[in-house]
Amino acid sequence: MDNRHLAVWMVLIVVLIALRPISTPDLWWSLSLGREVSAGAWNPAAQLLTTEVRPVADWLGGLPFFLLWQWGGVYCLAAVPVPAALLSIRLLTGNVRRNTPVLSVVFVPLFVCLARLGLQPTPVLYDLLFFGWLTKSTTRDQTSARTGLRSGIFTFLTFSLWANLSSGVLWGLLRVIVAECISLRALTSPSGTGNSAGLPQFLSGRVNGRPTVLPALLGCMVTPAGTGTLADAVTAAAPHAFCYQNAFGDATWRGLMDMQWTATDWGFILMWVAVLILFIRYVRRFRTASVSEFVGVTDLVALPIAVPAIPLFGGLLARGNLPICAAWMLADAAWITSSASRIATSQTGLLPVRKVGLWLVVTIVTALSLLDAAGRISSDGARLGLGISQQLDFRLLNVNLPPRPFGVSGQGTLSAGADEWVGWAPDTRSAGIAVWSIPGLKLVDAPTRALVGGRTQMHELLAADLLGEHRARYRRDDGSWGGWVATLEEWNVGLLFIPAEQFFLNQAMQRTTWRTIDLDSPTVPYVSTDDGTFAEDIVETLSQEDFVNYGGWQPSVDIYDSHGWRFDVVSVITGQPESAPAVRQSQRLRAAGLTMAALRSLLPVRSVTRHWTLRQEFLTCQAELLESEMTEFGHSRRLRAEVFRQLVGDSGDNKLLRSLREEAPTEADTHDSKALWRQVVELYIHGDPGGAAE
Fold first, then answer.
1. d(CA 666, CA 685)
2. How far apart are CA 22 and CA 61, in angstroms?
3. What is the pLDDT of residues 158-205, one digit of tens each?
4. Virtual CA dihedral for 280, 281, 287, 290, nearest 10 degrees?
5. Which of 391, 430, 568, 663 is positioned for an S-S bond with 497, CB 3.0–4.6 A?
6. DSSP at 104
7. What is the pTM of this model?
8. What is the spatial distance between Cα 392 and Cα 432, in angstroms, rounded to a whole number?
9. CB atoms < 10 A from the CB of 513, how many?
């Protein structure tokens, strides 16, 4: 396979991995900020949040994507990831047709997989593009380098623009600092006085001997936040160092050691190990090469320790750092392989690749990419397609706010100045959907702004009060006053927006005086029963709950239709709908205590689609119904028990299984045909309850 065919194959792999419906939780929050900026706001967050007092450093981040939305709508935004991936790869690696097979076959697919969410239209994309531009601009030959003054101005302007668009400017600054340190060490080494032939200029940190750290540092401060820009960037890069996350915040705040690992996490470790191997072999090549060709060779032993450790540390700090850390590692791999090819004393590269081995790796990567495109690898079941994912479809959030009487708070009590609707959301996705789709709504806070503003603790305490059913005022251990009633009244909150995935928080809401006014939105809206504004909506929703759980509700696959906002390639080819919307709907209904409705909501997808998350949710519904029957009647239905045994395995150590073993079978049960029961259970499990009943 020559380089031209390898480049074509690489583009196809990029399309298979990157082309997904937009699912990044920051989408609508970023576009909401961009909408406020387009309306003339210099501090867009202050227009959307009641507690925001600090200026936003990356205030311009959402504006380009908002203009793109205005111009082309859903599919214009959805078309961003693939060209963004190709441009990032070009900036980070150079001419893809000149890349080594190892870089194209191993590192590029891993980069796209790790950076998939970052390639979607949110400010994280700016981090990848600016980091790539920084790589490209600093790896030019000395003959084409700018003068010291021009280089300083260029660096200053680059970091100024970067800091106003995204909070990831810290990673560019770190790259420049590391390069400067290595350059200074090489300059002071006994063996040389400058940049070595084998050390690319990207790691020299200097252009014509002029340092670039100071212009970069000054450029980071040219934002509305001023000197606080870097502090905000550090906080965003290491959320857990500045807050304790339980029910408030985003999943991307958690590090690799805080949650169960996914395929993406294993891919990150694999990429880091591969880069580390390249570094080690590169150092060995330097040691065995002719000393006359290189300068400062002994100082390069620090490379395998210093440079690869930074992306590893970033990934361990927070999952949100994975895209930029993947870009860092791809840039490392690119300059190592290119430098090694220039200094090689033989035709053998750093990682020898024989023709048979190359085809084997290509086959494996292609197979894994196809499985991933079919939604069989990722935990969220995202599949090859275009558009906006169901979890971000704000059209499903059906909330119409009437004019609010002046002086009435969200709890229905008198409150001076309470003439606007205020909401509260524990995650960025819900916050963005709420402020984007509901005119006239403000939020108390947004997780990203609460994090940099040091306000996450008060939101965590509110979530803890809701989870712990602390309605009345009480004294906390730290001396502050708790109780969710007083907190929500103080903040003048009239609506709560909780993601369907937060099962325990939604379940706790059923024990409060707040009720939902929507059944099918991935962002669940709650209003207070003490506020009569939504009385009719509450009554209507309660009647709908009775119908879906106890009535004749027979859902079809149409309830999960995209209505023109998603094009699912896999569904077009196979006819199998995506499983994630059904799983999310089931979780939302189970949290409301509507387990039978949750089981019904899985049926239209379960009958035609097989996915492990769908199977797990089906098992959870069966377990809850089985436990409910045993608690209420003292025994379980035979069919439910057999289904549970089939799914779990009769030899497992499970509380419900032990209870089932203790049940004495009746005489009629003893003579039932086991083969017939196995057939009935298989029909039921595979989504054919009618056939099972026959």
1. 24
2. 17
3. 999 999 999 999 999 998 887 777 665 554 555 444 444 444 444 444
4. -150
5. 430
6. I
7. 0.89
8. 9
9. 15
